[in-house]
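Exercise 7. Predict the joint structure of the components listed below.
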Amino acid sequence: MIRATLVTLATTLAFYRQNPLQALFVLTGLVLGCGLYTAVAQINASAKASYAQADEILGASAQWRITDRLGTNVAIADYIRLRRSGFTNIYPVIEKRLASRDGALISIIATDLLVLPLTGAGDGSTDDSAFQESPFDGSGWSRLTQPPFEAWIPAQTAERLGVTEGQQIQLREGTVLPPAVIRSQPQQRDQIFIDLGAALSIFETDRVSYLAAPPLTPSEQARFVDLFGDRLVLSNQSEALDLTQLTQSLHTNLTALGLLSFVVGTFIVFNAVNFSLHARQQTLRVLRDLGAVRQAIVAAIAIESLIWAVTGALFGTLLAQPISAALMPAVAATMQNIYGASVSSLPVFNAGLFWEALLLALAGLTLALVLPLLRATVVRTRDSSADAETVLSQRDMALAGAGLLLLLIAYLGYPLASSVVQGFALLALVLFAGIALLPVAVLLAAALGRLGLQHHWLARWAFADVSLQFPHLRLAMMALLLTLIANIGVTSLVGSFRLALTDWLETRLSADFYVTAGVMDADVIAGEAWVRAAHRRVVAETSFAGRTMTVVGVDVDAPDFGPANVIDGAPNSYADWSAGGNEIERVFANEQLRYLVGIEVGDTIALETELGARSFEVLGFFHDYGNVNFSLHLASHRFSQLYASAQPQGWGLWITDDEEEAAELGLSQLGLEPTQWVSQRDVLALSLAIFDRTFAITRALNTLTLLVAAVAIFASLLAVYQFRRPEYALWRSLGMSWSAFFVVSGFPIVLMTVVVMALALPLGVALSWLLIHKINVISFGWTMPVVVAREPIIFLFFVVAAVVFAAFILASIRQRTVVNTALKSLAGE
Amino acid sequence: MSTAVVFTEIFKAAMFELKHIDKSFRDRDDFINVAQDLSWCLGSGESVALMGESGAGKTTLMNIIAGLDTVDAGEVWVDGVQIAELSQSELTAFRRNHIGLIFQKFHLVTALSAWDNAALQARLAGVFDQRFATNLFEMLGISHLAHRRPSQLSGGQQQRVAIARALMHRPKLVLADEPTGNLDEATSAAVIELLVSAAADAGATLVVVTHSSAIASHLGHVMRLGSGALTPA
Ligand SMILES: Nc1ncnc2c1ncn2[C@@H]1O[C@H](COP(=O)(O)OP(=O)(O)OP(=O)(O)O)[C@@H](O)[C@H]1O
Ligand SMILES: [Mg+2]
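Solution:
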């Protein structure tokens, strides 16, 4: 048995020695599939490591902050008490925004390097290599922490301030900073870094802005409240916008594309293996006739697959390194925008990924091998010249019928699907329908073209040739179709996200500054020259249908909420809402109420208020992207009556044009700490930048998956050429010029690609519709308008055309010599 | 008059002329001599049967005449043109315009109807003539099959379509390599008769490779290839 297997193996492997190109295809498919998957997995892992790292490095994004219950500054003594009672991983931060003597704005951040968790011990999820570039390592420890201290100034800040090495910046009130060291620490942003001890002595204080803490467990929180609740406040550092969801969507995107690339890679392998087995059918049959038992053949092929899988996974993992290294800077830039902290742009290599790749390669190969193997042993012979006769085979018709049926099921099932799994089942239905419809779509297009151009013989021929080439290109075209549908779906999804988010941010964050503390006096603010408008934000929290319900008091003339934000309201709903009701309150509700509870326009909700239970009539809805809570907008004059004791959450300030610096200085002069206000412009710019990065990565990966699909087409084209070599030689023997030759043999590819595009467009849009209106609604309860932007889809089509064309050219290059050789043996064929 | 012009004048009537050609294949240790100092001149309008043992080099010789293969030494003139001096695309155009090929296995384009198959080379050459085509189909007795695909035709019918294709563009030279090799005896006789008379009607020079002396008897004269030399039989 072993000997039989080895002999069989040697015989079947000899095929690759004679056809090194075949070996190359199989390998290419595996390597590309594994490589892309690994690259994406690696980017994901690195990005996650970066989050954790960024979280640990500076308190700016630590999840919890500890502030003083009375003032906002925390006494150092309290910090020491905390540490003594076991809260050892908290650390003090001083943040200041001040004016220099020449009136330039300066941000200073100070912390205690000794307690900063820089060791990478973290939560164990990160690899050591991510920490090699730790921000505050190396020399200069003692110089930083001992008089005269050092002020680390990023190069671009130094340039802005006109400071040179060794110079000391003087502040407006006379304080002098330590000597400058131009040293750009990645996490520093535009801030000047000094040691905590230095800061305490320079600013002559024994208090810090806040204490930063890593995520605390509920029991830790309880203990904290027990011990320090009377003096200190522990608050979750929720920013104006919850960015976790955005990054989550980025990762989901990346993972989906990674898996997709693997599926496409499997298609290539399938194709190549199918072809190599087909070409070896004769050998296998001879082997069987010579007495090789079937088990030996199967064992030989299994061993061959194992060899392939290991090689593919190995080279795939190697290939992943440059790919992820190329994409990593984009991801790193995204991280920078999220945290203001640039992280290592080197991908994290993880040995576990190799095994994952190997497992996937084996799974893919098994799939690719089993079907052709079954066919190779079951079906005896197939006369390849006979199949193209009828325009549509019965099998194709049945397949198309199945495709239409799948679409019908998806259509009927759409209103019924109510879980994420069912939502994904709908997605699968659409994808399978696309695959099932493709053959008939291609062959019908060819038949119609042949009928329509009946009178032109070359056109008739070119269209007729479609049905001859399609059987060979079928799988590759299906792979292309899948890729394209998914790419259009994801592109539209991301595009819709971006547009919805921009809209949402621009109205919701339209205030230039958001002052979180309610300490300002309305009259004082109104008197400032740089203030254009100021509106207070008041919120009351109750609960409704098992979720938190926030009732927001909105000034009717506040620029961030207007008639344009209302969905499905009656024409005069905004005026009615502004006027407010008497018996029944009038509100606008977020969409979450509609999708998760089924509230419709005109329904009323009963809520407890300070004046007792009241009814709220819903006049319309508003998009509330990413909110996990229910929310109602109530005109502020009604709000102040119903929730008289509600604490103001803060102010939205609109600034006179170009007065941002004056505003920042003005806010400091009003006695506000830098932690008490947020520049909405920064948040806006940041969020949009994140999205553009997401989009850039999506685009890069789109292009890569399409390239993988192109390889499938390339491999199939070579197969076509091999199968049809005698026929092509005949064309040439009749004196067909190369240009005519490539027109006739190339046209079917063009037609198929066009049909694939035409099918992919509606199905891709349907896919993004499902993603946004079904899966998103099911899982989050909010939706957004589906935007099918023309430009990115045209870009996609352009890429598809380019890669298919490249595949055709590559496959054709060899043709001239090969066909010329085949010409001579035409007589003997 | 220069010698070149004299030669051209002399050989004007010659359809093709092989001058002292050498052709051999080297396959590892084997050395196969197909042609050694072989010369052959065939006049316009003649028809000839080319015979010889299997492996003698008949197909190779036909390929050389059709410009599909090259010689090691010597010159190949076809219709007053030296083949070696043509570029690849000129050679293709030359074949398209002046040569008709018929193969043992018919080699019809599976995607096209019998009519489109027969018209193919004439259309490529831009000389397709509807009336001539109709007559040719009638003469070959395949008018009623014009719309059929190759797979819907018998071998004899397919070969008649291939003959139509080889003649449709009115070539000066028709090369047929075992055109009846895949057909039974009765059909073979019918097909070869049609080929010879159609070629004569079209005024084409005809070379037919065959192993059968019955087939050879339909042609003007017979040549035998063996040991690198060509002899009249
Ligand atoms: N490309 C090649 N390389 C090596 N040897 C070749 C090549 N082409 C042909 N031969 C050899 O040249 C000789 C002549 O071949 P050719 O096909 O011309 O013979 P033939 O007379 O047509 O034979 P048949 O009657 O069997 O068709 C044969 O021995 C063949 O093996
Ligand atoms: Mg031969």
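Discussion. Residues 185-202 of chain B form the longest helix (18 residues).
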